[in-house]
Amino acid sequence: MKMKIEVKVVSTTIIKPSSPTPSHLRFYQLSFIDQMSNNIYNPFVMFYSAEEKSNRPANIVKLSHNLKKSLSIVLSQYYPLAGRIKDNFVLDCSDEGIPFSEAKVNGKLSDVIQQLDPAELHKFVPFELDGQSDFLLGVQLNIFDCGGIAILSCVSHKIADAFSSLMFIKFWALANQGDNDDKLEQLSPQFISATIFPPKDISAIHIPRVHIPNKKIVTKRFVFDSSKIDALRGKYVKNQLIKRPSRVEALSAFISSRYIAATRVRPGKRFYAIAHAFNFRTRFDPPLPENSFGNLSRQFIRPLDSTKGEEESYVDVLRQMRDLISSGNDKDNIKKLQEGIDQCFNFMNEHAEELSKGEIVTLNFTSLCGFRLYDQFDFGWGTPLWVGANPPLFKNLVVFVDTKSGDGIEAYIDFEEEDMARFERDDVFLSFVSSTT
């Protein structure tokens, strides 16, 4: 039986940049992708054991003070995060600050992690994830009965993609360690997104607000170890004219094919589409610096031909998944996006009626694999025991992150309750799952 956790906020402090933002940087230009993005949040929760106390203050008050002080210093570099959205064209870097909450959590950290329902991770977040808040960043320090802690950071998707959020945490962790001035200087954020994707007049475009439902969408976490992934990468492809897939290609195609198999039985006409988010930093020539801040990622989408039988479906979907992922590397597609042609938005707009009726079902994938979350998030007292990368509840969203060992993958999956019930009973799917805890 999974444990129900209770998280009670005991204090909230507004943290402002340690030095004022210069007047010439007062207004931050949103990029085209920023303009097309919703003000939802990318939350990451980092759990640290009480036993890992190398250089960690034994006193929670001191630990909290250090985190606030280093955060204030970081905000002087990441100054847009302390501002407010003025309109869908500029951000006012007003140094109004961000909330730093402290909360008490019932139970021991080890017990909570072993039994934690991924949906419970939202309790560590300082405000709702659906963008109702004016804040562009929120932080919460969660303190367990045993002395273990969990640090939550959530950055608004309106001005930053998940990779920017991760770089922010990495920068903060280094700042909290102290004596890392050279590294911090090298990793200072570069605000070039509006140069890469210039803003457009989109006043005539209706951008639907992302609705994050509280009911009927459930989140499950499935773990695939390296042996299962290797088996999946080789499954069905031995006698096929197809190159061995990457880990992400294989898992994306496998989850898609099993979801289709599980949901075909539902009444009504159903067609499927697949969407993958792409980090464009590595796709430019030369590549953009990893510390380039902003929304430098975007989804590409394509309809899925899923008419093959059970044995063939995985390979068939895999081929199409590979074609989709290849489109993310196509410089012509990136150039079109720079010109203001958003392929994903256009697809959604053209098929709005079918999507609203449930006749077209979209599966959305995002991969954070390869970032080395655990190595990057050492605040001075060791690497995290676990990093929870729970996405906001969003229908048919799959997020991949590396396991702590680095060779496995955790998949956070959001499905409708009815679909998830069928999906997690699928024997073929379960045969490749290593763990759900």
Automatic annotation (TrEMBL):
Record PANTHER family: F21J9.9, VINORINE SYNTHASE-LIKE
Organism in which the protein naturally occurs: Parasponia andersonii
InterPro entries in the cross-refs: CAT-like_dom_sf
Protein name as catalogued: Transferase
Lineage: Eukaryota, Viridiplantae, Streptophyta, Embryophyta, Tracheophyta
GO molecular function, one term: acyltransferase activity
Similarity field: Belongs to the plant acyltransferase family.
Statement: the UniProt record of this protein carries the keyword Acyltransferase: yes
Gene3D superfamilies: Chloramphenicol acetyltransferase-like domain
Keywords: Acyltransferase, Transferase
Membrane-spanning intervals of the chain: none
